[in-house]
Design goal:
The chain is built from five helices and four strands, in the order ααβαβαβαβ. The protein has 135 residues and is of the alpha/beta class. Helix 4 links the parallel strand 2 and strand 3.
């Protein structure tokens, strides 16, 4: 009888562990929820690192830009409306998140450290980051 109760309690423990979501799934769900309310998702250095962290099961499409007039990036200002339209259209057609794709924007003013580590000489850049095991 004692073995039976021990066996049942160990099965319950395994069930709880199996039911836990992976950090990548939680991360995708967090960003997808943000994208549903405001897309593209606005990033800072910390959010960029979280979004593009390795071992994830989604695609991150990030526009690195410098919108402030002091940077003088005319291309940034011209491309931004198209980027906004693309990301809004994508999320409108994929509200359930089946494509597992997140559109986001990192402005130089909010992510200076990321710009310095990724690409210091070019202000406008589109980064598509995939780390999907099933691809």
């Amino acid at each position: 009888m004692r073995w039976l109760s021990l066996f049942v309690s160990s099965l319950c423990s395994l069930g709880v562990l199996a039911a836990k979501k992976s950090p990548a799934a939680d991360s995708f769900q967090d960003f997808h929820t943000k994208a549903l309310s405001a897309t593209p998702v606005k990033l800072n250095d910390a959010l960029y690192k979280q979004l593009t962290a390795t071992r994830r099961d989604y695609t991150a499409v990030v526009l690195l830009t410098a919108m402030d007039a002091k940077f003088g990036c005319q291309l940034c200002r011209e491309f931004q409306p198209e980027w906004d339209l693309l990301s809004r259209s994508w999320i409108k057609g994929d509200k359930a998140g089946e494509s597992r794709t997140i559109y986001a924007t990192l402005d130089f003013s909010d992510g200076r450290d990321t710009f310095m580590s990724v690409w210091s000489s070019v202000t406008t850049s589109l980064s598509i980051s995939r780390d999907r095991p099933h691809c």
